[in-house]
TrEMBL record, chains A, B, C, D:
Gene Ontology MF terms in the entry: FMN binding; oxidoreductase activity, acting on CH-OH group of donors
SUPFAM superfamilies: FMN-linked oxidoreductases
Similarity remark: Belongs to the FMN-dependent alpha-hydroxy acid dehydrogenase family.
Keywords attached to this entry: Flavoprotein, FMN, Oxidoreductase
Matches recorded under Pfam families: FMN_dh (PF01070)
PROSITE patterns: FMN_HYDROXY_ACID_DH_2
Names of required cofactors: FMN
Protein name: Alpha-hydroxy-acid oxidizing enzyme
InterPro entries the UniProt entry points to: Aldolase_TIM, Alpha-hydoxy_acid_DH_FMN, FMN-dep_DH, FMN_HAD
Chain sites annotated for binding FMN: 81-83, 110, 131, 158, 224, 246, 279-283, 302-303
FMN hydroxy acid dehydrogenase domain mapped to chain residues: 2-353
Top-level taxon of the source organism: Bacteria
Species assigned in the record: Paracoccus salipaludis
Length: 365, 365, 365, 365
């Protein structure tokens, strides 16, 4: 696809990906758990947060940079870990890594990536964080060492999915993983616990496990999938280098709050002791701005990058991330924010939205 | 129907039953009183209760069991009493009883069952509670004795329907009870009061009647159809062995609150002095979890079991109950609840949902 | 139309009238001012008021009777004044009067009736109240005397419409009054003020005019069209025998609150010193019950009676009023109200409705 | 178009303009930034503000006049500055000026007008305010002097748009400015800053710039595009002759509050020290009344005038303004407001609207 033929907005990428992918794959990518209330809520919660701009503000020229776990980044938009990217494009995680790096966006490689750790790392210098699931102490540590050996700089432990979610949309569409797809980086490691409720719960990780991992792992560990402020504080006390407020993109348990609804209490509980990231429903530069206003240090975007990957490979990924970064800058300029220091809770206007102003937006999607 | 052809979710059963039943029967089964605001509200109220999960929680392995009026049950999902099940399947209440028992679900036989008490009791060991309407002191006691003689363990007196509801959907669809259908277990007993407003109200049961029945009946009596906390407390003071928070599935008076909206105040008023059950709008394992979080000891499901009965008889009933039980366990696992002891009001996230995130769900149904 | 062919619910009458009337006449009857937000709000406000029923309550047998300005009525449902009923049926106000009287419903004849005062009065004994607009002191008093001479028992002065409303629905449908239609009871009297804003406002009635009329008129005067509690109190202080909380059926100024939203403060301000009536959006027996719970002594229904008149003349009017009365009794029975003494504010359950449960109802209409 | 063929309501003008304009031009005119949430919110916020009318009020005859920056105006409805009116009608800003003046409405000429300052001024005596963007101190002052030389009486500095908004609707429709269209009044002046985020922010005006302009300019300066009360107070402290509460018609940054939502705090912060205007979503006389009730001294309408221009040139503009003025007078009459002195915050009824009463309105548009 030539650059001039690329979709013009993130929403256009969503539509183009829906048209380009096989229906079952699109159902897998776009669907959520249960009746998809949380899936919709992730986006609707941003719609419902109006921004109160300031005008004529003094201060320096525009700046979106930040330091995250010791690394300087141009902007606070990261690519979230996503499984099975080869379903979307033959270049898979390599294209994600290249596109993200081209636009200064850190990428978190999924434990269920279809590309070897080192190969993804080599495809883009900013593909340097790795997400993993609990595989028991031994398995988890072995996987962490693989990531460290491949040059990754941090680990992101997913703590919100002791069992897989049920996603009727993909079930009805007949989605199934192709037999030739496997989590190549997990070869030789134990599989996550399955079986009866009792067995799953007996094998699920506990606070002591997180504490142990933070001490034993060769890299800093962020905890991903936290919504409760008490859990966030406890994770940091256990040694976590940061937390990710997330409901797993609405894919695991339907009925959870939007992640941005849970964000303020988490940010308040941590009070700057460790970085707070958030993902789920971020589709616009204004959503990034809202998340920062409510206490996030950075955000992760998932599906937008996946839509772009499906539509135009690495070029699309770079384009979508550029759109989001540009939208963030435009939003900051109009809202009167010259740098992250100008962004805080007072940027959110507190009033119930009038009925009907949001619904049409949701219906159009 | 072969097991592999069964619908995959409760929602799929709803659709399949709608397609399988004659339109007038479907209107009778799925419709509600008046404009069906309460019918929709029963479901929408669950949608609007987000769950706040906890991660990495310590504790034992997973457990959903409970003791209810002295009986140990594997899980807190009961089958609600429903009239005229022969309209849905030739095996009627026998299939309900067998399917429920197969999945460890207690069943409450309806006073308007189309199957004799003993025959239903024999079809499934967990079909051991019996629901009845007020028929005057003599009639009600006679019916209670029939249930005791047939081996039932408890009675559930419906107190919320002194007159029949008006259901325009079934009226417009031309629904009428077939002439060969009758409440076989009421043979020879007086009919409920009918006639003028004055006559109906004069014959309606009063608190003294409940107190009398609790003392006179050979079995413990639960009061079904209570929404007000003061009424719940008075019922227990009158000797009731438990209460069921219910608006009769939205079938009697339109404009009532959702039963789950009324639940917290009732649970708070009883403070554990007697078990609290709730029915109305429970369609998912997460709905069961929400009800438990808001103070219910157990829940009753009606239409989901009826849809399953219509689609696949006893096998369908067992399947739907299994789906709900599995969904409950998955929800507990992801929410960090290893047993009912971990489930309480703090599991509900208190914030108004953003507009638009729930509507689409309702529209899809 | 034979009785067995009559529509079965008020909603069915609405639909049948929509089909039976010429489109422009239906637009006039069913439309409202402006964008019809108040028109919809009148109905939606009732939908949003859940009823909290009580069970097993002691007390006498059922009773809906009341005394209103000294007259005993079987029930609290009146027929509201409505203009130009000959547009709907050749028997016009005579059919309304006959149908209303047959069901024990007091009727308020409109100043813009197409039937002479005495003729309507003769068609039904309960057609004994008369509504009038301000025509200047001399004109208004002359009209009041005409009503007294024709045997009417009370006057209802409309105070909320100093100018006519703008109703785009009927404008777009090309509605115009037929040339042979005239307000026969106003013959020879001055017309209401028209012309410039300044002229209209100069001629509009003021508090001193109401006080004068209450003293000078040969009959008690109720003030119709009050939403503000201070205005209600002042009207009674000026001598009004009662007030009608009303927004004129949403036909005069769009953007007003629903009348039932304004009711509680008015009832509270009057504290029983004079009867409070309410109209606007009452379509069900449960709506009557809600209005009584919020402080109304009685309600007036307009469009439901008009739909019935259009569909089936006096028989239809009687039928719709019977449906509403029966629905009120059923609602009282199920809500545990044996008489108006059991009906109060605690009958309304205070909680925001979950999103989505009301919308479908509105969309269906 | 003959007068008798004109549309009958503002809404009808909206529809007629949508049919008359090329689709890309209609998308440019009617669209908004991003997902158009703010665009819809501007209108929905008015829908959600119910008016509490008073009856029988004493006082003088009707009056809507006001004094604004020393000029007596018949009514508080102004025409907002709008770019590129030649896209809508060949008579462009001259027709706007003539139509506005014919109905006593002050007009604010846009800096991006397609008509020379003096020519627009000559087409209508009430076209006497001029809107401008920041062009650096030298450029802005030069432009201000051009306006003063052409006989304009005041300047309105837009402070809310340091960068252009992104409007997907017009992008998708392929809208582009025709090459022969240019901002004729800006000839020879520097263009607004463009380029990188850093460059744009470095060139954006600051408080010191506003203070400087207010002192240096030959005309009083109003600040347009303020939503925050602190900014409004600071603007007046900096010498601004008034403020315009505005979100730029939802065209610059999506996600802002409705302007009428931000109005009360701004009016309260200024406490009458300087006039407050508001624009955005005003489509009805009742919207004007609501804005006045919440503290505005006057309102500006944009798109309604543009629709009218597109449909019927100067005649249409005059007609739409007459409709709005008449609607305002009718609304005042029915709400019991004889003059602006009767209009205050107590005119707004404070209660959440019931669900569903507003949605249908939005959907119809």
């Amino acid at each position: 696809m030539r650059p001039e033929d690329l979709p013009q907005t993130v929403e256009d990428y969503r539509r183009a990906a829906g048209a380009a992918l096989p229906p079952a794959t699109a159902a897998w990518l776009n669907g959520g758990a249960g009746d998809e209330i949380t899936l919709r809520r992730n986006e609707a919660a941003f719609d419902a947060l109006p921004l109160m701009p300031r005008v004529l503000r003094d201060g320096g020229s525009g700046d979106t940079s930040l330091t995250l776990l010791g690394t300087r980044l141009d902007h606070p938009i990261l690519v979230a870990p996503m499984a099975w990217q080869r379903l979307l494009h033959p270049d898979a995680e390599r294209a994600l890594a290249a596109g993200a790096t081209a636009q200064g966006a850190r990428m978190v490689l999924s434990a269920q990536a279809t590309t070897p750790l080192a190969e993804a790392r080599g495809a883009g210098a900013l593909c340097d964080w790795f997400q993993l699931y609990w595989l028991g102490r031994e398995g988890t540590l072995a996987l962490a060492r693989r990531a460290a050996d491949a040059g990754y700089a941090a680990l992101m432990l997913t703590v919100d999915a002791p069992v897989a979610g049920q996603r009727p949309r993909e079930m009805r569409a007949g989605f199934a993983l192709p037999p030739d797809l496997s989590p190549v980086n997990l070869a030789g490691l134990p599989r996550p616990a399955a079986g009866s409720f009792e067995e799953v719960m007996a094998a699920a990780p506990r606070w002591a496990d997180l504490e142990w991992l933070c001490a034993a792992a060769p890299l800093p560990v962020l905890a991903k999938g936290i919504l409760h402020p008490g859990d966030a504080a406890r994770a940091v006390a256990a040694g976590a280098a940061g937390v990710v407020v997330s409901n797993h993109g609405g894919r695991v348990l339907d009925g959870l709050p939007a992640s941005v609804e849970a964000l303020p209490a988490v940010a308040s509980a941590l009070a700057g002791r460790a970085p707070v990231l958030v993902d789920g429903g971020i589709r616009r530069g204004t959503d990034v701005l809202r998340a920062l206003a409510l206490g996030a240090d950075a955000v992760m975007v998932g599906r937008p990058a996946a839509w772009a990957l499906a539509v135009a490979g690495a070029l699309g990924v770079a384009h979508v991330l550029r759109l989001l970064r540009d939208e963030l800058r435009i939003a900051m300029a109009i809202a009167g924010c010259r740098s992250p220091r100008d962004i805080g809770p007072s940027l959110i206007f507190r009033q119930n939205p009038p009925e009907g102003c949001l619904t049409a937006s949701s219906q159009a999607k």
